[in-house]
Design goal:
The protein has ten helices and 14 strands. It is globular and about 65 Å long. It has helices spanning 14-22, 48-59, 117-128, 142-155, 184-189, 192-201, 204-212, 245-252, 282-290, 308-313, and strands spanning 8-10, 26-28, 41-45, 72-77, 83-89, 94-96, 103-104, 108-109, 131-135, 161-166, 216-220, 233-237, 260-265, 296-300. The protein has a six-stranded parallel β-sheet, sandwiched between helices. Strands 3-4-5-6 form a four-stranded mixed β-sheet, with no helix packed on it. It is an alpha/beta fold.
């Protein structure tokens, strides 16, 4: 019996799993989709009377509204559906969000596109938390905000390097090209990680310079066991939807107390392997475990900023 490598036996029965494993067949647990509406913020709409009650009671007395969690955001709309205030509940009081615009030589000034309220929350979230998760579809600004913020910290000397953890798997359903020649960095630069870096920084030569001088460190998830971040590192996990719980746990255990971590990905449409889907998704599990902790913040970005064709294609 010669098992095919592309066969995966899906079962929740431990005996069946052991039999399949003994025959050399890969196994996986069934994908159980559970709905989770947490976005890192909540939106409330108040009429004049309700608005007055919020400020005189909840806001003035520092009472959490609607079971809001620490580091979760509150967007307040009036009866005409206009946003009139945005706050972060820090566990003790309502803190008005800081409208920041990180600036660096390579990225220039990074600010909310078209006054996007969700990008405003994301930048505030980055500035207040050791761990930030930015979720959203392609073109929503996850990497734009993340890299703009990290390069700002780098130029100010607040971090000494940017470490990128990646799990460079093929796009779902796409044909694999086989092994790439070259060093670890060359192989990663020939994958989606390299395409991502060049698209953000603008020049492959500059990307190679950053890597050669240690400003950017590329590490595949397969190589991070035993690795520890140095002091004041900025760690970035891109395409985090393509990580299992075990992978994500391993990555988080590399993060030192004086390093920061940004996790970005799209749980809704860009999971490229069934092994990372459903309740085994590492990004999903991070949100479940860390939300409400004083070191963690999360924002789901809602608006797409790409070409008109890309916006229409999102409906496919």
């Amino acid at each position: 019996f010669q098992p095919k490598e592309d066969i995966v036996f899906v079962t929740s029965d431990i005996t069946c799993k052991n039999i399949a494993t003994s025959l050399g067949i890969k196994t996986s647990k069934p994908i159980i989709e559970t709905k989770d509406d947490y976005t890192g913020f909540m939106t409330v709409k108040y009429d004049d009377e309700e608005l007055a009650e919020f400020y005189s009671h909840y806001f003035f007395k520092n009472i959490p509204v609607n079971n809001i969690l620490p580091n979760q955001y509150l967007i307040i709309k009036d009866k005409n559906d206009l946003i009139i205030d945005q706050y972060r509940w820090d566990g003790h009081s309502y803190v008005k969000i800081t409208k920041i615009k990180p600036e660096s030589k390579i990225f220039g000034k990074v600010g909310p596109i078209e006054s996007d309220v969700f990008q405003e929350l994301a930048l505030d979230c980055l500035s207040h938390n050791q761990i930030t998760m930015l979720r959203g579809k392609a073109g929503s600004g996850k990497s734009y905000l993340s890299f703009g913020y990290m390069f700002n910290l780098l130029e100010k000397g607040k971090i000494d390097k940017i470490i990128i953890f990646a799990n460079p798997i093929a796009t779902r359903g796409a044909c694999k090209l086989g092994y790439y020649k070259g060093t670890k960095d060359e192989k990663l630069l020939d994958s989606q990680v390299g395409n991502f870096l060049v698209s953000k920084i603008g020049d492959k030569g500059q990307v190679l310079n950053y890597i050669s001088n240690g400003t950017i460190v590329l590490l595949p998830i397969s190589d991070i066991r035993g690795y520890e971040t140095s002091s004041a590192s900025g760690v970035y996990i891109t395409e985090a939807q393509n990580m299992s719980i075990d992978m994500m746990k391993l990555a988080l255990q590399r993060i030192g107390d004086d390093s920061i971590l940004i996790i970005d990905g799209d749980l809704e449409t860009q999971v490229d392997d069934t092994l990372f889907a459903g309740d085994n998704n590492g990004m999903k599990r991070v949100s479940e475990v860390f939300r409400g902790r004083d070191c963690y913040g999360e924002v789901e970005l809602k608006h797409i900023y790409r070409s008109k064709i890309a916006e229409i294609a999102d409906k496919m």
